[in-house]
């Protein structure tokens, strides 16, 4: 069945996209307003887009006719931290998604603590296993008011207990126990070993002749 987005109402487009493009990693974004007030909120319109240079992308929807605090702070300050969400932090992450009044300290409300960043002004969330310090590379406002943020990743913090070999930058990724956003209003996915499988990349020489890609 084909759904043509040129004619489909926006709520139906959203339902289809949000329930099929899964799992989505969650960026738990910390920012500060001009007075230095800390803000935290989760965003699953998020992914790593490039390693050279290191760049990630975020999509922040408008709030009615206005802006979410995260979007306003990123526009004003140009810096933010993407904290990654372990399963143990799912509940506090959900608390910070509540539409609090601007100026509310969402971290304190969720029982979490800030830790100073090294290269940007907004702090990271001390309890998260990984945090990416970012500076705005580009901002694109879509006609709907959604803000597409590309961020240069300046530094990465990781809980040393999650490293297998710091010198070689080998991470014990399953031990991060990160979660992803699934469908509906409240489904999430684990990245636990039971759900993982390994599939090495294929070398062209290993393919049978009929499967070998020919010249185009
Ligand atoms: C898991 C999760 C993922 C979310 N992803 C997004 C997203 O990608 N874009 C968005 O605009 N809102 C997203 N939200 C909603 C925001 O977190 C919510 O609007 C929040 O109140 C924004 O806070 P702020 O005004 O402090 O920036 C998400 C909520 C949850 C729980």
Topology:
Layout: H1 10-18, E1 24-25, E2 27-32, E3 38-43, E4 46-51, E5 54-60, H2 69-77, E6 79-84, H3 90-95, H4 106-109, E7 114-115, E8 124-125, E9 130-141, E10 147-158, E11 163-165, E12 170-171, H5 173-176, E13 179-181, E14 188-190
Antiparallel strand pairs: 1-13, 2-3, 2-6, 4-5, 5-10, 6-9, 7-8, 9-10, 11-12, 13-14
Q: What does the largest sheet look like?
A: 7 strands, antiparallel
Q: Which architecture name does CATH use? A: Roll
Total separate domains: 1
DSSP, total strands: 14
- Strand order in the sheet with the most strands: 3-2-6-9-10-5-4
C-alpha termini separation: 31 Å
Overall, the morphology is globular
In the predicted model, the low-confidence regions spanning at least 5 consecutive residues are none
Q: For this structure, what is the CATH class? A: Mainly Beta
Mean pLDDT: 95
- Structural class label: alpha+beta
Topology as a string of helices (H) and strands (E): HEEEEEHEHHEEEEEEHEE
The helix content, as a percent range, equals 10-25%
Bound ions, cofactors and other small molecules, one mention each: flavin mononucleotide
The CATH superfamily is known as: Electron Transport, Fmn-binding Protein, Chain A
CATH overall fold name: Pnp Oxidase, Chain A
- Whole-number radius of gyration? 19 Å
């Amino acid at each position: 069945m084909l759904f043509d987005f040129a004619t489909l109402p926006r709520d139906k487009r959203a339902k289809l996209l949000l329930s099929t493009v899964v799992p989505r990693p969650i960026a738990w974004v910390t920012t500060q307003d001009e007075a230095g007030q800390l803000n935290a909120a989760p965003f699953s319109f998020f992914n790593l887009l490039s390693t050279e240079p290191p760049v990630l992308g975020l999509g922040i929807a408008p709030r009615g006719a206005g802006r979410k605090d995260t979007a306003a702070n990123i526009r004003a300050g140009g810096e933010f931290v993407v904290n990654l969400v372990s399963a143990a932090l799912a509940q506090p992450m959900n608390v910070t998604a509540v539409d609090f009044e601007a100026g509310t300290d969402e971290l304190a409300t969720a029982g979490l603590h800030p830790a100073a960043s090294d290269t940007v002004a907004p702090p990271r969330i001390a309890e998260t296993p990984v945090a990416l310090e970012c500076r705005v590379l580009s901002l694109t406002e879509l006609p709907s008011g959604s803000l597409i943020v590309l961020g240069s990743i300046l530094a990465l913090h990781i809980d040393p207990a999650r490293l297998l070999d710091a010198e070689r930058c080998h991470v014990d990724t399953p031990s991060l126990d990160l979660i992803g956003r699934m469908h509906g209003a409240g489904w999430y996915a684990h990245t636990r070993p039971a759900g993982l499988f390994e599939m090495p990349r294929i070398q062209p020489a290993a393919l049978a002749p009929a499967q070998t890609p020919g010249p185009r």
